[in-house]
Amino acid sequence: MRPSILLLLCVVGLSQADKEKIFNGAECVKNSQPWQVGLFRGKYLRCGGVLVDRKWVLTAAHCGGRYVVRLGEHSLSKLDWTEQLRLTTFSMTHPSYQGAHRNHEHDLRLLRLGRPVRLTHAVRPLALPTSCAPMGTRCHISGWGTTNKPWEPFPDRLQCLNLSIVSNGTCQAVFPGRVTENMVCAGGEAGKDACQGDSGGPLVCGGVLQGLVSWGSVGPCGQKGIPGVYTRICKYVGWIRTVIRNN
C-alpha cells in the first residue's frame, strides 16, 4: 500500500456538521456489513452508501458531488488491513429526483467506481430485493455517527441499530402529505434513529437492501413516535439494473 494511502487512512477527520448519524446504536461486529461504504471529500466523511456491484455504489441523491469511496472499513482512524479506496468517475441521479427542498422523492444516486473492488470477507455487494418488505419486518441500519447526543463526538467504529418497518399510514400521520409509496419508514422508538449525514446508508432487511437513509424529523434525532424515512429500493430495482448494464 502506498504511503499516501496510509496517510489518508490514519489521519482522518469527521466533520461535526451535516452528518446523518446512527443514534444510540452499538458497535457492529467487525466486517459484518461488508457492503457499507463511506463517501469522503478530503478527510471528511460526507455520506454513507452501499456497494451493490463490484463497480457501483448506491447512495442518496442529495449526496451530490464526487468522492473518495472507502470500503472494508471498521475503524476510521486505525488501519484494519481490509480497506480499499476508489474514486468515483461517473454518477447517475434518478431522473425524477427534484431536490430535497421539494419532497425528497426518488432520493437515490448511483456512483461508478474507477475500477472494480476486490471481493473479500470485508468488501462484498449487498443483494437488491425481489419484493418490498412488509410492515413489522425487522431490519438494521449502519453508519459512522454520534451514538448518544448530537453534540457528542462521532464514534470511530461502525455502528449498527436494529429497527422495524412501520406502515406508510403511520408515517403519513407524522409527516402529512410528504410520504409516498416510493418511501419506506422505520423506527420511531425513543432514542433510536438515523440522523443527518449517514444519508445514503443501507436499511437491510433479511439480508437484502430495502432502503437508503433519506430524511426524517427536523428536530432532535430519536424522538418517540417519529420514524425515519428511507428511499424504498424495491421500487427502483429495474432502474438500478438498467443504469449498471448501460454504463
UniProtKB/TrEMBL annotation:
PROSITE patterns: TRYPSIN_DOM, TRYPSIN_HIS, TRYPSIN_SER. One of its GO terms (cellular component) is secretory granule. One of its GO terms (biological process) is proteolysis. One of its GO terms (molecular function) is serine-type endopeptidase activity. Residues 22-245 form the Peptidase S1 domain. InterPro entries: Peptidase_S1_PA (IPR009003), Peptidase_S1_PA_chymotrypsin (IPR043504), Peptidase_S1A (IPR001314), Trypsin_dom (IPR001254), TRYPSIN_HIS (IPR018114), TRYPSIN_SER (IPR033116). It comes from the Eukaryota. It holds the Pfam family Trypsin. Residues 1-17 form the signal peptide. Keywords: Disulfide bond, Hydrolase, Protease, Serine protease, Signal. SUPFAM superfamilies: Trypsin-like serine proteases. PANTHER family: KALLIKREIN-12, KALLIKREIN-RELATED. This is Kallikrein related-peptidase 12. It comes from Peromyscus maniculatus bairdii.
